[in-house]
Structure prediction request, 1292 residues.
Amino acid sequence: MDAILQIPVLGFVLQFLAYLVDAIFTTNLPAQTLQLATPIALGALCGVLNERSGVVNIGIEGMMLTAAFVGFMAAMVVHEAMPGAEAGPFGFTPALVVGVLAAIAAGMLVSLLHAWLSISIRADQIISGTVINIIALGLTGYLNRLLKPGGSAGTLDQLRPPTELLDLPIVGWIFKMFFTSGPITTSVIFFVIVLQIMLFRSRWGLRTRAVGEHPRAADTVGIDVIWVRYRNVVLGGVFAGLAGAWLTLEFNASFQNGMTANRGFIALAAVIFGRWTPIGAFGGALFFMVWEALGIAIRSNPPPGDLGVFLSGLQSSYPSMYNNFFGSLPFVLTLIVLAGVVGRSIPPAATGRPYVKEGAS
Amino acid sequence: MRAGLRHAWSLAVIPVVSILLALLLGSVLIILSSLATQGSLNLMLPVVAYESLLQGATGLSFIDVKNGAITVNASIDPDQAGRAITSTLAAASPLVLTGLAVAIGFKGGLFNIGGVGQVLVGGFSAAMAGIAVATQPAPVAVTVALLAGVLGGAFYGFIPGALKALTGAHEVVTTIMLNSVAAFVIIGLVNDIFKITGPTFARTADVGNAALPILFGRNGNLGIVITVVLVVVTWVLIYRTPLGFEIRTVGANPDAARYAGMNPRRLIVLTMTLCGMFAGLAGAYEILSLGYYPAVFGSSLGFAGITVALLGRANPFGVLLAALLLGAMRAGAPAMQINAKIPIEIIDVIQGLILLFLAAEQVVRKLIRSRSERVTPSEIETVSRSYGETVV
Amino acid sequence: MTESATDSATAPTPPSAPAPALEMRGISKRYPGVVANDGIDLDVRPGEIHALLGENGAGKSTLMNILYGLATPDSGEILLDGTVVRIGGPSDAIARGISMVHQHFMLVPVMSVADNILLGAETMANAIFLDRVEAHRRIVELGKRFGFEIDPDVKVGTLSVGWQQRVEILKSLYRQARILVLDEPTAVLTPQETIEIFAVLRRLADEGHSIIFISHNLHEVLAIADRITVIRRGKVVGSRVPAETNEDDLAALMVGRNVQLVVDRGESHPAGPTLIVKDLKVADDRGTEALKGVTFEVRAGEILGVAGVAGNGQEELVEALTGLRKPTSGTVSLGGTDVTGSGPRELQQRGMSFVPGDRHKYGLVLSFPLSDNLVLTQYDEAPFVRGLLRNDAAIDAWAKEAIAQYDIRTPSADVSASTLSGGNQQKAVVAREFSRKLSVLVLDQPTRGLDVGSIEFIHRQVVAKRDEGAAILLVSAELDEVLELSDRIAVMYRGEIVALVDGPTAEREEVGLLMAAGRRAIPPVETGPPADSAAAVSS
Prediction:
């Protein structure tokens, strides 16, 4: 066995696989992945809701950023007003409750702008998304500089299931992955399942899909296309808002300019990767972010043997490139996946096209 | 003549009104900001801010502010005006280039959001080549470095073009991904390999003779001249050559282009490459003006190019005018920050607002009861449609 | 229990007709520049199939859009069972038992039959979720009641058009519609499918449904309708019972004049073959073989017409010949050179001109000026290009010439093509394609949707091109057009050429039968349009 692991390249690959299996089953790599994938998955749910009803949303990034800023500021204001407030379950202080709600409201509000631009006045949907991204970046950057918020309202707590539960075989692993992070991260799996069921089994889902595929057909059976689209886009804002709240109220305790760091765009790719289904998009988010989690795992707990020596050597000689390699992997993977998959995955047919009622001008 | 003027006005009215509305909304924001910076609402702050902006961009001054009192006093300092206008031109030139990088894409039915990455790659390529030829005679060094920048950008535009042509991957998503990849890779390279010891921040060596020669004023360099020439060349290319006709046909109706014997796949690759060349040149312009490549070369040029292209109706001369306006804002912003204590980021907000009103042009048009022509290029429909289906 | 369509058509209307289920009184609707409906009166009785006959653009669709709430009339009123109602939108119409089967099916291809039927009239298990089990049961039951079995789980996109139409009808029945409007329901059907659908419609009428059948096809109207209302230019010009009328009478009413639109085409003097097609096989978008090996040749100086019901492989044939689609096997040779699989550019250089069937998709760039459109396929050839640049003077000169020569009505050559009428747009395409140096001319639906004047003009140009020695392939869904122009006629049926007949001596009925059944014998069905048309002619 050792002899095989000594072979160059193949040895590395085998060592790496062994490390990977080990990491998946014994370390917190799965939980870390889920955590990093949370904003991507939430953003992707926003994208699924939009595009299933026929609206392209490339403004997820801007919605998340706005929500992150608004949520953070709202929490700060409440925190300063009542600094000693008791924390409830999951570390929810009044400030954090207000912060999360404000982030969701901000996400919905920006979504409403997107809905108005792309549904009501039939501006180009891709331009509308771009406008939102540019304004969000500019406005949050401006206000952040102007208001110079110092301090923080803290973050939401991680869940701590009883250790007896975590030690159980299989069940313990599942619990470790899904129930050892903050409440927003934990909620993702719930939203994914609910939306998946709703989209394919409920009246709302049926109408949403019809409007995204063939709005005129929906119109002729008396469905209000405009209203269905508005409702979906604004509902999508809830998830973009939650993703923003995750950034400043759960994962970090501060706001930095442009801190979404293109997560909204990876979310868009996860939508395509998941073929416009909530579960598929969630899988895409996990796939894109597992690599960054792996990078963190390797740094804190390098694999044994030659591979570990090699990786540690790389890290000390080229620290910046080493880190940036893992940072850029989601984007490179997205590109590869898009190039390989998109030709065969077909979005809802009416995506990107404003709906004009027959006879209306 | 009168008909010509009326036509020009019908083209310009929506952009002009959008700019005015954005400035108006910006002034509301400035007034509200005074609550944070001065503790009370200062209704005159927008006047001070915009006047400083104007003065910083052109040297024209209309008011004096002393101890909070404002007196009207129109004046112009010729020296300052010269410096200010040169700065405006220097700031506008790369915006023209990134604006063209988006506008040419629009004409071909493509949305190039990859300006950010193409600027980075172009700038980095120019820096690498410039360092290599730093001691060569200036004409050789400058030419080599600029060409390297153009080629770097071309390469980075070619990738999304080829991906779209071959696999149907939409350029809106792929270019955004490539922006991030470029940023990560180049920062890593500069920090770990090309960093020189000495400066307090991570940067490459100097480009020496490859630095763009100053032709006038403090920073009026060769790049400005090249940019103006390129505006004319681009216009001729798009509207006066068969190739431009092919690009526009693919942009307006890819099916008709195929029917007419054109090759939409080839043209998509070509158009994206062309876009990348312009953005790459913008990056080269920035780096060869600066003289080295800093690791934190974060550039908003790429995104500003979208505003420039839309504001300029995707027409090369319109792009030139739009870039002059945005360049003036960039050149004047430092003066505004000093005089009005308003964070420089306000110009990003105003740019975003201009874009918002352009996107909402239907509403703007109703507001001013105008029947002017559409601002958004009609080819954008091809962009959105291709999101839902493979066009070629 | 079903009465045959022919029998019911010849049966006289009972004198004591029941009260109408639907009445439309004095309906008028104006659009800018057009009076679409001008005081139209229409009444439909329960259990009646009422045909609404008229040319394209006569105002039938507008009237039905008003009934379905998609358009608001300027004046007039709608009565259901004698009560005046206001129909504000499709949901209003549906609630009142009115349902519409659109010409372009309003079905979502990627969704199942059941989901399409449920949409907007969902059977719910509770406040949130659909009750798919109950829905399945009801759909299967409804289908059985009207004589067909349908699997509710099948994706609509995989069904043939005939079955898609049944899904549309089921959609109406699921909503318990009493009044069904069918807009040109047979345009996309094969004759066999048409007969089947007619049987379904007759059953529906027997159960008491009222059916409004919109058509411009005289044979079908005579075959299926209990009463016929003819509309011309927005006005009702007459009402007939099939037993008391015939095709000539209806045609005169519909068109308004007894003019036969026959171009004096003279005799053809064909030379050697220019376009030779051998065993050409072509797959459609879904990968199924749409063209199953066709062989034919077109000689210089003749018009070969291709007749067939839409969807029998004509589209794929045209696309393969013009380089827009790659054939899977077989050969095409043009002027003695093998051009199999060549792209549009190479074919154009070898002398092929092509007037595409969809002028908005292929033929024109609507946002471009007319002048640019007139050089769309010649933009890089002399004299329109000089050195590296376009030669605008030459383009303008040619545009002026084309506008005059082809009678294109436009304020100038600089206006965008989108501002021209359909007829003038088509003339622009014809001007461009006919003016090239050409040896082969492929015409796909060259006069679809055009006014009579434009049709005559284009037909004359086609004959002139033939007489200049061009080899012309004419593909048209209008059998009359094919009969009128062709020197020889190839009949296509299910991706094959089933017969080649001489043009000038071809009998309409014979070609129609070939199109319908792929053979000359009368198909073994109870009733149908071919049998009826024979009856109508003899009467």
Summary: The first strand of chain B starts at residue 60 and ends at 66. The CA atoms of residues 15 and 311 of chain B lie 6 Å apart. The mean pLDDT of chain B is 91. Residues 2-38 of chain B form the longest helix (37 residues).
